[in-house]
Amino acid sequence: MMRDLVRGGVAGAAGTTVLNAVTYADMAWRGRASSGAPAEVVDRLLRAAGHPVPGSGDSRDNRLTGLGALSGIAVGCGTGVAVALLRRAGARLPWWLGGVVTGALALAATDLPMARLGVSDPGIWSAGDWASDAVPHLAYGLVTYSVVTAGQR
Asked: Which of 20, 92, 97, 152 is at a distance of 20 to 30 A from 46, taking alpha carbons?
């Protein structure tokens, strides 16, 4: 069991690294700005929990940016652990389908809280917006699932 937890965490970390690389490459290619949504989600969640982020101005904004990025790493590693545990429980998919499903799980884990908290409405996103979200998550899923299943039957 511990081996599966570690494998899932490592797989999620590898997938998160690829997701970030694909995202940053897209930003560099198209000249688009980074998303403020992760910081806004963290801000709203912490406020709702009664623990608002301290500070003001740039100091507070920088804390939120860092916490937003850390929350993405946590979601990526956590999704990897969940997928490893599902595999341990008997869920066996071909690598390509497992990768797509893993990417979809990670996408849902980030987009659903944004929608529920009113940070963003995926229902009105353009095709370009969806591509900017879906392509990195697909890359995440393929890498994460490949690491989870490496060396296993």
From this structure: 20
- Residue 153 confidence (pLDDT) above 70: no
The reply to whether 16 falls in a domain is: yes
Q: Is residue 18 part of a domain?
A: yes
In a domain, 143, yes or no: yes
User: What is residue 152's predicted lDDT score, i.e. its pLDDT?
Assistant: 78
Measured distance CA(84)–CA(144) in Å, rounded:
9
How many residues can be counted in the chain?
A: 153
- Distance CA(132)–CA(114), nearest Å, equals 15
Query: What is the spatial distance between Cα 16 and Cα 144, in angstroms, rounded to a whole number?
Result: 8
Domain that holds residue 68: 2-50+60-149
pLDDT at residue 13 tops 90: yes
CA distances in angstroms from 63 to 35, 40, 47, 50, 70, listed in the order given: 15, 11, 14, 17, 10
For residue 55, being part of any structural domain is answered with: no
Place of tokens 């879906």: 134
Number of domains in the chain: 1
Among 47, 149, 35, residue whose Cα is nearest residue 101: 149
